[in-house]
Specification:
Two copies of one chain form a homodimer. Chain A is mainly α and about 200 residues long. The first copy, chain A, has two domains: about 40 residues, Homeodomain-like (Arc Repressor Mutant, subunit A, Orthogonal Bundle); about 130 residues, Tetracycline Repressor, domain 2 (Orthogonal Bundle), CATH 1.10.357. Chain A has nine helices and no strands. Chain A is elongated, with a radius of gyration of 19 Å. The termini of chain A are far apart. The relative contact order of chain A is 0.11. At the A-B interface, helix 6, helix 7, helix 8 and helix 9 of A face helix 6, helix 7, helix 8 and helix 9 of B. The first copy, chain A, binds a DNA duplex (30 and 30 nucleotides) through helix 3.
Chain lengths: ~200, ~200
DNA sequence: GCCATTACGCTACGGGTCGTAGCGAAAGCT
DNA sequence: AGCTTTCGCTACGACCCGTAGCGTAATGGC
């Protein structure tokens, strides 16, 4: 978050309600206007605050949208469906449902595009959005290894590489399917994807 | 391309040199300024043409950048390295090299972000950029089936689904690796990725 | 209760980009 | 030649950016 009040600070505290209103207004504007036509003036008006209040809390459009989109990813949960295949399918379907929301599509792609020339922004995205998804991969993997569905690795470095690879394959495929190919990541597609991924991962090293 | 002269048209023809200069200037501006700070005024100045000339040929920034980036994808070639694994690795490494160029990174992500709210733009990207990559998948797949490395499919609809899935997995993983995770898609990574993908695809239906 | 400190709403500002219009000159085709 | 289209140039209103300054509101410390 942005407005962390360090407890013992004197003066009037920042309104927590304003934070929530601004982030909600940002998502609303993303739905109606998209990334490029979204203006901070418009967000401020929707949220019922002054434009200057926005600039006191966020450095600019990029940072604001990252925070607004990051909240959406709080909904992601790792289901315990009994098998690794079912777990993957569940997570992928949740992720696909998120990417189906227009505020998520345009917001995420907008900030990712900006992050190609803004390292601090990329780091902010990583912490607020990417790591939150990656944790699901780590947990799901641990469960699957406990069940014996995946071969365990001795080398922790090898484990990190495999987790990274798995994550890039899952998230990348879903994003590419929905945003570039422009087709829905529905159950049929997810089943086919999970099958291919699982066969590749389950093979011994 | 944009300025297609229908041959028998009277009047002064559009300068082909200007087209090339504008597209090159667009890529140059993408490198130095990135997607959001790129202005058509700046591109026009770099190309040595008037701003109005730009607006006569392209509807706006989105369309211009799509054309400028699409030219980069002409370089993609399907190597004949003897095995499917080597072919995939070759293509993926080429794709990774493209995404390593800043004009490709910011330009591509920028227009993809806009395309989430602009169906005609998405179609333009599909025709100019996506289909050009997808053809490599189709060709490589045909070769591999001729070599017996991949199981052939009787159902043409099933074939289309598999090609789509393969393409989304390859392109998606590379894009996510380089642009979201922010790590290089080097030979080590490509080898690991190809291994997982191939095991999943080679398995019988 | 008083005071220092901070947040807030409001207004205004210079600087920049957008997309378009209008003009005269240049460059082709028949 | 004459017609047609492009091109460079200038100018324009509209909009957004990001900041500054002001008076007011809401806290915590004493």
């Amino acid at each position: 978050m942005q407005s962390r009040t360090p407890a013992g600070r004197p003066g009037r505290p920042r309104s927590a309600a304003a934070d929530a209103a601004i982030l909600a207004a940002t998502r609303e504007a993303l739905v109606e206007l998209g990334w490029s036509k979204l203006t901070l003036q418009d967000v401020a008006t929707r949220a019922g605050v002054a434009k200057t209040t926005l600039y006191r809390r966020w450095a600019g459009k990029n940072e604001l949208v990252v925070d607004a989109v990051a909240e959406l990813f709080d909904e992601l949960r790792l289901p315990d469906a009994g098998s690794l295949a079912a777990d993957i399918e569940g997570v992928v379907l949740q992720f696909a449902a998120l990417l189906d929301r227009p505020e998520c599509r345009s917001g995420l792609m907008g900030v990712v595009a900006e992050s190609t020339r803004d390292a601090p922004l990329r780091e902010r995205i990583r912490v607020s959005v990417v790591e939150r998804q990656k944790r699901l991969v780590v947990e799901g993997r641990a469960r699957a290894q406990a069940r014996g569905e995946l071969p365990p690795e001795a080398d922790p470095e090898e484990t990190a590489r495999t987790v990274d690879l798995t994550f890039d394959m899952v998230a990348g495929a879903v994003v590419h399917r929905t945003l570039v190919s422009g087709k829905p990541a529905d159950e049929t597609w997810v089943r086919g994807f999970t099958k291919v991924l699982l066969l590749g991962l389950a093979a011994p090293a």
